[in-house]
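Q: Hi! First time doing this. I have a protein sequence and I read that you can turn it into a structure. Is that right? Here it is:
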Amino acid sequence: MGDEEMKSIESHKKNLDGLARVYDSHLKSLTRYKTHFVQDTSRDEFNLEAVATNELKCFCLGGYLEKVSEDALREHLLNAQHFTIMMQRRNQVPQDEVFPFCYGGREFKLKGHKGRLPIEAPDWFDSVALTIIADKFEDLNDLMAVEEHGLLEYRSKQTQLAIDLRLHCLGLKPSPEPEALLEAFLAEINVNQKIPEKKELALGGLTITLGFFDVMRAIHAKDETDYRQAMFKAVEMHKEWFTHDEDFSSRMIGYVSLPLLTAAKYAYAKYGFTLDFETPYLPIYVKIRGQTL
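A: Yes, that's right. Below is the predicted 3D structure, encoded as structure tokens:
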């Protein structure tokens, strides 16, 4: 890009002082959780989900704050991925068996969590996204085993089709009939648009999943120009989705688009594609102008 000024998509979050306070709160929670679990030797317990969630929130928030260095942001990302994959592995261990886990110089013997709680498919896909973004490709087999063993819970047929479509695009679960998969997904959106209580679900499919699909289609076509245009539009749709409702606008995961950050990582790793715009919705990757994380 040289000295040419890059385009940008500004975030819907403007109160940076407020975000800084929320970030500090989650950072304190992380320290408290980790210290407690390591020091409380009276029992073998470590809340992997709580730690993973707070690390991810710090990553989502940190990209907006000048006081959070790129190294700190990267550490939050790597930690979020690490504790998330540990959580997913624990979810595959029967409750009457032991899941060994080491942290802070202490060896834990945690109880397995298989079948204890449902594994929500969208949350699981976030684990896949984090793993790709963090370059931890060796962990993908463990994550795909969760899906292959039928351990995921889908709240709707549209959600299941959306996950299958994303996995196909990433080459993790190739569909023998990709066009039929896309048509089925679009047909389900059309059905849900006519049902008042499912209109919001349909909007999410149109803005989030189809935006991701269009980006991945441009990547597979090896067209960097189309990729950049599709990504710009997809980020705008991400912003539209997370500003269509006041409740959604406050959701932490809306501060960063993990699916699109995954696509950006995929595009750069496979073809060296970079982007020609900046946005806090895609932290790190765009900020360092297309360099690997």
